[in-house]
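Progress narrative, Year 2. Work on Transposase from Pseudoalteromonas undina advanced from sequence curation to structure prediction during this period.
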Amino acid sequence: MANYKPDLSCQNKFIPINFAKQILPGTFECALCYIVENKLDLTRFEAWYYNDKISAAAYPATVMFKVILHGYTYGFIRSRRIAIACETNILFMNVTRDIQPHYTSIA
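Result:
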């Protein structure tokens, strides 16, 4: 009987990821991050979450806005699916700066 090496394609790997190098210039993700971070005025959202270190920390408005727009672009209209993508998809991880918002926060 032949002795083959085992198939390890279903196992998780611990690999170092540099999120800054995952999004290439000229892609939709790069444009989305640039527009949301540099061109949009999100001060109204930031003023709403003025918690002064008393209550729980909130997700940044830029991250939530980017994750919702990015999810809708790829046809993810359910908050649970967007939350799963933030945990498993490298592009979503980069757009959200590896912050994994809960699906109730996305909804």
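Helices lie at 28-39, 43-48, 61-73, 79-88, 90-95, 103-106. The chain has one domain: 29-106.
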